[in-house]
Amino acid sequence: MSDLKELCSGLPLDPLPPNRGRDPNVPHAPVRTPNLTAEEERLALRNALRYFPSSHHSTLASEFAKELRQYGHIYMYRFCPAARMRAYPIDQYPCHTRQAAAMMLMIMNNLDPAVAQFPQELVTYGGNGQVFSNWAQFRLAMRYLSEMTEEQTLVMYSGHPMGLFPSLPSSPRAIITNGMVIPNYSSREQYERMFALGVSMYGQMTAGSYCYIGPQGIVHGTVLTVLNAGRRYLGTDDLRGRVFVTSGLGGMSGAQAKATVIAGCVGVIAEVDEAPLRKRHEQGWVMEVTSSLEQCIKRIREARNSKTPLSLGYHGNVVDLWERLLLEFERTGELLVDLGSDQTSLHNPYNGGYYPASLSFRQANQLMSTDPGRFQSIVQESLRRHIKAINKLSDAGMFFWDYGNAFLLEAQRAGAEVSKVGGGATEFRYPSYVQHIMGDIFSLGFGPFRWVCTSGDPQDLAVTDDIAAKVLEEIAANVSERVRQQYRDNIRWIREAGKHKMVVGSQARILYSDQKGRVCIALAINRAVADGRVSAPVVISRDHHDVSGTDSPFRETSNVYDGSAFCADMAVQNFVGDAFRGATWVALHNGGGVGWGEVINGGFGLLLDGSDEAAKRARLMLNWDVSNGVARRCWSGNTNAYETIQRTMEENRQLRVTMPFPVQDEHVLDRALQG
C-alpha cells in the first residue's frame, strides 16, 4: 500500500530519485532513429524539461539529451518506479472513486513486466504500443486519478495528462486520444519525429487505452481463426495432424502457440528473439523449443503422423523455416504444412517489427540504428524471399492468409509478388483473415468481449466464467444454426478456459460474443457483484479489433467493398457514442495493428459495481457498441450484417437503421452508363 501511495504522489522532486538507468534484466525497445535536426533536438529537450521546475533543469537536461541521442527518445528512466508494477486489488489504490481505481489497475497491468513487451520503455505490445511516452506522464496520470472525483474527467493527449476538467457524474472519467495527427502529416517518418519530440504517441490498440489483458486477449481470436480456417480451407472441424506455420512469439503474437494446441493442430512458430521465446516456454505456452531446422522437420512429421497437438517454437528466422519447408517439398514431394500466416509486427517494419533473414538478431538491431537506409533495403529483400517461398508452397496446396499485421501491404511495397489480378485497393493474392474468416463473424455481431475481476481473486474469475457460459447456453437454444456455431465455439472456450491457464497479469477473460450475449453477460456479472457472488467490481471492455471499433482497410474493414473501406466514420462515431452512453473511459487512436496512418480505432472501459446505474450504462452502451458496426456493414452490402441488424431492430423497436436496396440487375448499370 505504501508503494501505491508513493506512485500516486506525483513527480518525486525533493529529492530527485537516483538515476538507475535501464534495467539489464528486462527486454528493451530497439533504438529509434527519428533523424532530428539540431533545432528539433533542442525542442525535444525543451518539451521534456517542461514537466519539471526550472531548478532541476540543469540536472535533468544532460541525461535527457543522452537518452535522446542514445535511444532515439526521452523515456525519463530516472522516474521509472522501483515499486512492483502489477494489477493490485482495486481496494488498495488511494483514490476517491472506484472508477479511477479501476483505471489505475488497468494501467499498471499494462506495464507489468509479466505482461508488457518493453516495460521500461512503457511499451505493452507490438514493438511500439505505448501506454505513455515517458515516466513523468505515468506519475502525473496516477496522481490525477488518485485525486479525481465523480465530477471530473481526466483528459489524455497522446500519453500526456492535460489535466482534470469539471464534468458530470454521467460523463466518462477519462477521455484518451493517441496520435490524432492532421491526415496529410500522418506518415511513418513524421511519426518518428513527433514521438521523439514528445508531442504524439502510438498507442497501438489496447496499450494506449489501458485495456490489454496479456496474450490471452488474442488467444481466443486465434483459436477461432484457426478453427474457421480449417472449416473453410480444409473442410473439417478436426485439425489433428494438420500443420500451421507462422511467426512471432512476442506480445500479441505470443498467443499463437497456445491457440494452435487448443485448436488441436501442430503449430510451428518462428521467433528470432530468444527472450520472448524463452518467456512463452517458461509460461507453458510453447511446448518445445529448437534452433534446428532439421529438428523442426522431424517433429512436424512425428506430430502429423501421431495426430498429436504440438506447439513448437523455432528459434530462428521464419524465412529460413519457409525455405526449408519448400526444400523438403521439392526433395520429397511431401507438403508438410497445411495452413500458414504471419504475425511479425510489420506495422513497424524498420524499427524492430521485422528481422530480415540475412542478419542475426544482434546485427539487425545494430544496423537499424547505424544505417537505417541499408537496413530498409535488407528488410525488403527478405520480404521478397519470404513471399517467394510462400507462393511456391501455396501453389502446392498450402492455404495462407494475412493476419492483419501489414504483412502483404509491406511485401507489396517491397516489390514482392502479392498482387491480385483484378483485385481492389484492399485485395492481395492472399486474403486477410477478416476477408475470408473473421469478417463474417464481425457481421454477425460477434467480437472480442472481455472482463477483468478487480479483486485479483481467481475465484471471482471462475464465477464469472460460469456465469458467461450459462448465459451463452441459454441464448444458443434460440438462434439460427449459423449463429449457433459461433455460440458452440465460445461455450467450449469458456468452459475450458480455466484449465488452459491463460491468465497473465490481471484476472481477466475474453470470449467472442454478439450484441445480445455481451449485454446479458454484463448484466449477469453486475448482479453477481451486487449480491456478493463476485467480491469486487468488474471492468468490461473489448479489443479495438471488433465489429465497430476499428476502421482499417487492410484488416477490420477489408471486407467492405462499397468504397468506404478507407473512411473512418464508424470508429469515430463509436468513440463518441460510447462516451455519452455510459463508458467509464473511452479512447480513440491513429494506428494499431496495420500501422500509423493506416487505421483509426477506439475502445472503452466500463466499471460494473453492482449498481442499477452500472446496469443501465452497460445495456445502453453495449447495444450501441455492436449495432453501430453491424449497421455500417449492412449498408456496405454484407448479407450477414443485413440479417443481423434486421433481427436486432425486431427485438428493439427504438432502433431504426437505414437499410440498403441492393441492385438486383447489373444490366441496369450497364445500360445507364452506356447511354
Automatic annotation (TrEMBL):
Cofactor: NAD(+)
Gene3D superfamilies assigned to the protein according to its UniProt record, in alphabetical order: Urocanase like domains, Urocanase superfamily
Pathway this chain belongs to: Amino-acid degradation; L-histidine degradation into L-glutamate; N-formimidoyl-L-glutamate from L-histidine: step 2/3
InterPro entries, per the entry: Urocanase, Urocanase-like, Urocanase_C, Urocanase_central_sf, Urocanase_CS, Urocanase_N, Urocanase_Rossmann-like, Urocanase_sf
Domain Urocanase N-terminal: 85-211
Highest taxon in the source lineage: Eukaryota
Catalytic activity, EC: 4.2.1.49
Keyword terms: Histidine metabolism, Lyase, NAD
Any one GO molecular-function label of the UniProt entry: urocanate hydratase activity
Record GO biological process: L-histidine catabolic process to glutamate and formamide; L-histidine catabolic process to glutamate and formate
Known catalytic reactions: 4-imidazolone-5-propanoate = trans-urocanate + H2O
Domain annotation Urocanase C-terminal: ranges: 440-646
Spans annotated as Disordered: 1-36
Ranges for domain Urocanase Rossmann-like: 214-437
NCBIfam families with a match to the protein in the record: hutU, PRK05414.1
Family according to the record: Belongs to the urocanase family.
Protein name as it appears in the record: Urocanate hydratase
